[in-house]
Amino acid sequence: QVQLQESGPGLVKPSQTLSLTCTVSGGSISSGSYYWSWIRQPAGKGLEWIGRIYTSGSTNYNPSLKSRVTISVDTSKNQFSLKLSSVTAADTAVYYCARDSILTGYPDPYYFDYWGQGTLVTVSS
Amino acid sequence: DIQMTQSPSSLSASVGDRVTITCRASQSISSYLNWYQQKPGKAPKLLIYAASSLQSGVPSRFSGSGSGTDFTLTISSLQPEDFATYYCQQSYSTPGTFGPGTKVDIK
């Protein structure tokens, strides 16, 4: 059973960089059928996809965040990471990592089938 | 970006009721539509993918239909554990966007 676990600071100061890591267990992050995504959810609000990475290092980012986001992967540790720079209070949210699966017969990621439990990151001085 | 809307935004229902939630995309997304269930304090859970395919382990009372721009999630007989918020999500184009959610609570 695949499991994902987010880790990182729960409090970040405005203008600084938010850094989170997702550790994958129960399966290899290097499997060719999956991408690995970050998604966030402000309190009481909806879900926003931040970006994804493939094990080759290829990335896709949400254009609304692209200038501030970097997602990287460390296959030796079965982890992928998120960095979000120049944060403001608007970046306060629960951050989820998720497996972004490819449906047989389709070339691109189709659905998020495994999620981490989420980690709350608060941006405040 | 493709905009996703859902209706209603909330509904009250009783155990045993048939519940239908609608999701609409701002442009055609073929069948690139997924449904998730989220309970308070928990991560979303995939219910339906590709508009109508039931994710493994999900009860058969959940079903999905639609293509193009209009989709529905149906719960045939609402159970106590189904009270939650439901989100649709399109994966037709990047960024994959979610609907605003439909909260199902107890009548």
Give your account of this protein's structure:
The complex is a heterodimer of chains A (125) and B (107). With 125 residues, chain A is mainly beta. Chain A contains no helices and eleven strands. In chain A, the strands form two sheets. In chain A, strands 2, 4, 5, 6, 9, 10 and 11 form a seven-stranded mixed sheet that branches. A four-stranded antiparallel sheet of chain A has the order 1-3-8-7, with no helix packed on it. In chain A, a hairpin with a 5-residue loop joins strand 5 and strand 6. Chain A is globular, with a radius of gyration of 14 Å. Chain B has 107 residues and is mainly beta. Helices cover 0% and strands 50% of the residues of chain B. Chain B has no helices and eleven strands. In chain B, strands 2, 4, 5, 6, 9, 10 and 11 form a seven-stranded mixed sheet that branches. The radius of gyration of chain B is 13 Å and the shape is globular. The chains are: A mainly beta (125), B mainly beta (107). Chains A and B meet through strand 10 of A and strand 5 and strand 10 of B.
Q: Give the % helix of chain A.
A: under 10%
Average pLDDT number of chain A? 95
Individual helix count of chain B: 0
The helix/strand series of chain A, from N terminus to C terminus, equals EEEEEEEEEEE
Q: Uncertain regions of chain B: pLDDT < 50 for 5+ in a row?
A: none
Shape of chain A: globular
Low-confidence stretches of chain A: none
Order of helices and strands of chain B: EEEEEEEEEEE
Short structural summary:
The complex is a heterodimer of chains A (125) and B (107). Chain A is mainly β and 125 residues long. Chain A has strands at residues 3-7, 11-12, 18-25, 34-41, 48-53, 59-61, 69-74, 79-84, 93-102, 109-115, 119-123.
